[in-house]
Amino acid sequence: MYGDIVILSGAGISAESGIPTFRDSDGLWNNHRVEDVATIEAWYKNPAAVHAFYNQLKKDIADKQPNPAHLAITRLQREYKNGAVNVVTQNVDLLHEKAGNTNVWHIHGQIDQAVCMRCGRVLPAAGDMDEKAVCPSCGVAGKIKPNIVFFGENLLYMDKVEALLARCRLFVSVGTSGAVFPANTFARTAKYHGAETVEFNVGETVNRYDFDRHVTGPAGTTLPAFVDELLKERTEEADIVGDR
Ligand code: OAD
C-alpha cells in the first residue's frame, strides 16, 4: 500500500477506554438532551447548564487512558513510510494525543480548550469554567464557551480536511455511527477522489454503503490487526522491489 492515509475517529474508538459513546444504549445522548447541552441555541439560552455539562465530562474523562486502537495508530504513524497518516477526530477527548498520535485534527473541538465568542481567541481550559469568566484577550465577560463544536456551528479545520480527503489513498473510519454531518460525508469524498474506504465498528453504520470494506468487532482488537496487515504488506512490497 502506497500513499497517504486518513483515519476518521468517533466515540467508538474511546469506548474501550471507558468513555461512553453518544448514541449507543448507555450513550451520553440517552441521558442528556442534545438540545440542552450541544446546540448553539442552548449556549445562548443557558450557558450555565452547558458549562456544567462539559465541566462534568472533563472530570469524567480526565483519567481515561488510550486503548490498543489509539496505540495502533501511533505504531502506524511511526512505521508507515509510504505516505502521511493523519487523524481526523470527532472526539473531544485527548486520547489520540495521550497515545502519542500526531497530526490530529479535532474537527469537533477539544475538552481542554475554550473559545471567546466575542473575539474568537482560543484559550486553555484545564479546570472548571463558568458563564461569568472574563476573556483575557478582549476583556469581555460571559462570552467564553467550551471549544466544542455545537450543532449549528461550523466544523474546525475543514480546509485542511478537504485537502487530506482529496489526496489520501486509504480512508479508515473507526467507531463512528455516521449519523452526524459533515463527518459522515468524508468517506464518500475520499472515495470520489479514488481512495479505498474501510470502516471499523461493532455494528452497522448509517453510511455503510460508502465503504469498500467493513471490519466488525471492537476497534481495540480489529484495528491493531489491520495495522499489522498494512505494515506487513508494506514490507512485502519493499521486498519485491528489492528482488528486482
Ligand atoms: P456515536 O455514539 O454516534 O457512534 C459511536 C459508534 O461507535 C457506534 O456506531 C458504535 O457501534 C461504535 N462503537 C462502539 N463501541 C465500539 C468499539 N469498541 N469499537 C468500534 N466501534 C464501536 O458517536 P460518533 O459517531 O462519534 O458531537 O458521534 C458523532 C458526533 O455526535 C460526536 O462527535 C458528538 C455527537 O453529537 C459533538 O459533541 C460535537
Your description of this structure?
There is one protein chain. The protein contains nine helices and nine strands. The chain starts with a strand and ends with a helix. It has helices spanning 28-31, 34-37, 40-45, 47-61, 68-79, 95-98, 158-167, 186-192, 219-243, and strands at residues 5-9, 85-89, 104-106, 109-116, 122-124, 144-148, 170-174, 196-201, 213-216. The protein is elongated. The mean pLDDT is 94. The protein has a six-stranded parallel β-sheet, with helices on both faces. A three-stranded antiparallel β-sheet has the order 5-4-6, covered by helices on one side. It has 244 residues and is an alpha/beta fold. The site of 2'-O-acetyl adenosine-5-diphosphoribose (OAD) has 27 residues, from strand 8.
Question: Main β-sheet: number of strands, strand sense, barrel status?
Answer: 6 strands, parallel
Q: What is the average per-residue confidence, as pLDDT, rounded to a whole number?
A: 94
Structural class: alpha/beta
The succession of helices and strands, N to C, reads EHHHHHEHEEEEHEHEEH
Give the overall shape. Answer: elongated
Q: Give the bound compounds.
A: 2'-O-acetyl adenosine-5-diphosphoribose
Q: For the record, give the distance between the C-alpha atoms at the N and C termini, rounded to a whole number.
A: 18 Å
Relative helix content: 25-40%
Enumerate the spans where pLDDT stays under 50 for 5 or more consecutive residues. Answer: none
Query: Total number of helical segments?
Result: 9
Q: Radius of gyration from the CA trace?
A: 19 Å
Q: Biggest sheet: strands side by side, in what order?
A: 3-2-1-7-8-9
Strand content: 15-25%
Number of separate strands: 9
